[in-house]
Write a structure and sequence with these properties.
single chain; about 170 residues; five-stranded antiparallel beta sheet; four-stranded mixed beta sheet; 2 helices; about 30% strand; disordered N terminus; signal; WG repeat-containing protein
């Protein structure tokens, strides 16, 4: 009797662990990079209009391809939310959502985010992200820079179809 109970416990634990691993790893291999899709008017194929960030350059594609190969989904069911270092001395990252089913990359509508800046315009830490595997909402607590606009606070967007909507930035107009 104890032997059967032990086998049952081992099998149920194995089933639970495999289920958790499958949920965190997605349904298999992630789709390779396909393209960048901005979802907003203006701009180029891989960059918002007037933005210094080009998501199809070698540096950004290296981060994107590495994430596709190594990371599990962490946002909105089948996306990898990926911060990409921009200007490290200013604690700045750009941010993209990678669809692991299609390989399409969706940048958030800003150049970079960092921690809240002081009166001199300097950030002293990284901004904080809030998001969930089972939600289409992403919030940045810190400072967001888009074109010539700088906003600080807790700013949120939801991912709808092929773009992020919410806190307004110049790239959304």
């Amino acid at each position: 009797m104890k032997k059967y109970l032990l086998i049952l416990l081992v099998l149920s634990d194995l089933h639970f662990n495999l289920g958790v691993a499958a949920e965190s790893a997605g349904s298999g291999k992630n789709h390779p990079f396909e393209r960048v899709e901005l979802g907003y008017p203006g701009g180029e194929e891989c960059s918002f209009e007037y933005s210094p960030i080009h998501f199809c350059d070698d540096v950004h594609l290296e981060y994107i391809n590495l994430a596709i190969q190594k990371y599990a989904v962490n946002f909105n069911g089948h996306y990898i939310l990926l911060p990409i270092p921009e200007r490290k001395e200013y604690f700045e990252h750009s941010l993209v959502a990678i669809d692991v089913v299609t390989g399409i990359v969706y940048p958030l509508p800003f150049d970079s985010y960092s921690g809240v800046v002081d009166k001199k315009g300097n950030a002293h830490n990284y901004g904080k992200l809030s998001f969930d595997l089972k939600s289409n909402k992403i919030c940045v607590n810190g400072t967001v820079v888009a074109y010539k606009q700088e906003d600080s606070g807790n700013m949120c967007w939801t991912f709808e179809k092929n773009k992020f909507v919410g806190h307004s930035t110049p790239y959304m107009e």
